[in-house]
Amino acid sequence: MSAEKIVADLASTARIAARTLSTATGAERKSALLAIAQSIETRSAEILSANEKDMEAARAEKMHPQMQDRLLLTEERVKAIASGARLVAELPDPLGIILRESTLPNGLELKQVSVPFGVIGMVYEARPNVTVDAAVILLMSGNSALLRGSSSAQHSNAILVQVMRDALATTKISPDVIQLVPSEDRATTKALLTARGKVDLVIPRGSAALIRMVVDESTVPTIETGAGVCHVYVDEFADIEKALPILINSKTHRPSVCNAAETLLVHKSIAPTFLPMALKALSDAGVIIHADATAQKVAEKFSIASTAATQENWATEYGVLEMNVGVVDSVDAAADHIAKFGTNHTEAIVTENKEVASRFIALSDCAAVMVNTSTRFTDGEQMGFGAEIGISNQKLHARGPMGLEAMTTTTWIVTGSGQIRI
Amino acid sequence: MSAEKIVADLASTARIAARTLSTATGAERKSALLAIAQSIETRSAEILSANEKDMEAARAEKMHPQMQDRLLLTEERVKAIASGARLVAELPDPLGIILRESTLPNGLELKQVSVPFGVIGMVYEARPNVTVDAAVILLMSGNSALLRGSSSAQHSNAILVQVMRDALATTKISPDVIQLVPSEDRATTKALLTARGKVDLVIPRGSAALIRMVVDESTVPTIETGAGVCHVYVDEFADIEKALPILINSKTHRPSVCNAAETLLVHKSIAPTFLPMALKALSDAGVIIHADATAQKVAEKFSIASTAATQENWATEYGVLEMNVGVVDSVDAAADHIAKFGTNHTEAIVTENKEVASRFIALSDCAAVMVNTSTRFTDGEQMGFGAEIGISNQKLHARGPMGLEAMTTTTWIVTGSGQIRI
């Protein structure tokens, strides 16, 4: 059977099954998630033994240790997956929310209501926890899930999907709302990305290369997640007591994630005071520094190593302890730099001046602007969403951290008593 | 200069100019629109004379009279374009609206605020009025407009853009927020569709073929507009007094538009009473009938001509006075038929039974469900939006009629006092 046919069949089965979700109550969807959580805990041994098969293969092919760690499941990690499902089950029902309501002069009653997309595809890499995390978020928001994970996690994904489907078989929700897309053949990914009309949305989760591939090749609507070249701008009116911890937290708290900062921009008026402290703190934290001419002079004066920042440096998402440092003339110049090199993810300003903060916000074009706080707060759980399926880096549909609500669309319900258009 | 370079330069100029929109107040954007409206009226003669050049070319190449009519501008039509701009200027400002607001336990203040996309491309066909209609909606929502019209309207579009830019030159908004993409070369369309990162959104407006091309070829996010195979389902609990006018209005009020109905489905219990009346009324209105076996028998009995509806018929958006008629066993069967042949646009149910209506709504997967009213009400102006840039036929971002609000995205503004992530 061709990859197109395989995916089309899975999508078609999933769409019919999705009706058991769209006609279910929030309480019924919640019960289904709790059943899934329970089964995952109960069948932990089976899950771990399937995962061991993937781990054996990974060791045999000498997978990078960091990747092996992502692939690995432990008893604790399985418990955490189940707990995650229970947390999602406790979230407010995102469906049936009346977003707008009005009565027209002709008596028609208009309601805009949140409804599921229908069938959503996930394309992701080696972490098997995504299989469950994504499935429960999609189910709770009323959508069927087509899961296309990595072939390196195939045994883990297969058992996790089986456990979830078995759990659903005891509920009012059809097990067919969760479908594992075979990962042996790369063609199934392509087939999923081009199943326009059959799949309503595809979300990539993983490396920049994976996201780029999905965005380039997909004819199904997608939500781009990921890349973040985030900036911290320390304004002339900054409180240095705040600026320093914000800078260090933004860069070093978890350098590998997309909301970590890559570039520090400092207003020229505060540079003489702030730059020496900042460079020393970064250097002490083990951060390699790429600096513009002004910042390099300061670094030299204090015997702090730095290289001259290139155009490529300014545009790089390091993901490790490296940072660009530059001096700018004004908030507008900072915004110009960010417009040129940023990726519209998260930008922070440190300032006590509200007008400057407003100007920075108006000139920024990103998912989140942080005023006097760390870039690391662009995060669904930190923002109180309770769950996150990814961080949207695009402007269409959802921007920034995506929770349950982002997995819904809307429908207009227009109720009349025989009105016709004149 | 290559088409890619032309479009990249226009987009870059438009993005810088967009700042004069994102930092402008609603009142300033409104003034800009009023200046545009005024200039269009004042310079009506120039506009008509440019349009005459396009009309001459159209006549020379024997363009279809209907297409010629779409291309034609008259003094009245120019006035209507100016009035349209004034209407948009009066609408509530869609920017800076606080969509969500909360304070986190750590004291961070979260606000989700509506902001412009930035640079939006429009790809459209021969109607020169779209040049102004689209530009003013985009400007009012804070976006720069890259306008790619048809080469057959090139003189009309050029003068309209010139008039709008000249009007902006007298305001605080940069004229560069409106850019005409050259239409002599087809390659500029392709360049616009692939200017990912430079253009934030592309919206097609025109024929099904144009929309399909944009959706297939674009790597820039797009919003699919258009196709509607809409159904009217007359339930067993229908009030026939309402059903008949709703059916006739849905089919015949303006058959060429996307919210016109193409298929009538009748519950078997009411078919003996309703079908004869419905078929007669359709026939009297000049509607050609394609029917299933049951409906054909009724038609024959009353000497009403019909052909046997094929699979292709059920899936066709006629756009003219033709309609499919079928009998179904239940509301679920109606929903099944619609799921198979519908285009997720607008579906109507006529019923006095609220539970059946709810079931129909839950099983429908479309932009708008009409309960006891005509499919023709899926329309931005009818729904009270005041302006419409198109009807979205997709689930991502906007669904159904799109007004100013649909041309905005959001940003999170997180304000702290030095908080860092622990």
Automatic annotation (TrEMBL), chains A, B:
Pathway: Amino-acid biosynthesis; L-proline biosynthesis; L-glutamate 5-semialdehyde from L-glutamate: step 2/2. Residues 7-284 form the Aldehyde dehydrogenase domain. The keyword Electron transport does not apply. It catalyses: L-glutamate 5-semialdehyde + phosphate + NADP(+) = L-glutamyl 5-phosphate + NADPH + H(+). GO terms for biological process: L-proline biosynthetic process. InterPro entries: Ald_DH/histidinol_DH, Ald_DH_C, Ald_DH_N, Aldehyde_DH_dom, G-glutamylP_reductase_CS, Glu-5-SA_DH, GPR_dom. PANTHER family: DELTA-1-PYRROLINE-5-CARBOXYLATE SYNTHASE, GLUTAMATE SEMIALDEHYDE DEHYDROGENASE. This is glutamate-5-semialdehyde dehydrogenase. The lineage of its organism: unclassified sequences, metagenomes, ecological metagenomes.
